[in-house]
Amino acid sequence: MEKFTVLTGVAAPLRTVNIDTDKIIPKQFLKTIKRTGLSKGLFAELRFRDDGSENPDFVLNKDAYRQAKILVAGDNFGCGSSREHAPWALLDFGIRCIISTSFADIFYNNCFKNGVLPVTVSPEVLEQLFDDADRGSNATLTIDLENQVIRGPDGGEVSFEIDPFRKYCLLNGLDDIGLTMEKEDKINAFEKQDAETAPWI
Question: What would you report as the CA-atom Rg of the chain, rounded to the nearest whole angstrom?
Fold first, then answer.
């Protein structure tokens, strides 16, 4: 998993509340277990019209936000079903941080396991960040995970809270497998000892 330390990029405003995982990645794109190629389905029902053409009104189709790395989103982001494809699709598109006032629990947990940082802020701070994001290509935010701050385009800073263990995992690029492999020496030593003391197993 790619480490998350400091992220600087354009922030796209998505003011809609209760964006569920089916909106993030509709069910017809769930036929794969690969984590790549899912960006084409990200927000498909919002990004594209019935004839397959782009919806020019959707924020990620606007020129200023096509390369957005940060999403400033409405309340209760990621609600609905527990599909892990949702953070996969966001990451495949290039979005590594979502900022909202609240997230659905399973989506929130899945983000951390896939290198995406979900940041929870107060409604007042979210409105401030929406204002920053509305600036288009000038809507550059910096997310400093080590210091737990968001820096705005005018140099202002707001802090955010994060669980220390989750912070450690993101800073070091550790998913569940990576965490296990940190203990590889102990695992190997145990297996060697086990083979010597119980060779019949």
Answer: 19
Q: Report d(CA 128, CA 36) in Å as an integer.
A: 33
- List the domain boundaries for the chain: 6-173
C-alpha torsion sign, points 35, 38, 39, 43? negative
Both ends of the chain: CA-CA distance in Å? 34
In the numeric block, the tokens 């990451």 are attached to: 91
Q: Does domain 6-173 match CATH 3.20.19.10?
A: yes
Q: For residues 16 and 46, what is the distance between their CA atoms, to the nearest angstrom?
A: 11
Residues 176 and 185: their CA atoms lie apart, in Å, by 17
pTM for this entry: 0.87
Q: How does pLDDT run across 66-115, given as a tens digit for each residue?
A: 999 999 999 999 999 889 999 999 999 999 999 999 999 999 999 999 99
- Amino acid identity of residue 80, one-letter, is G
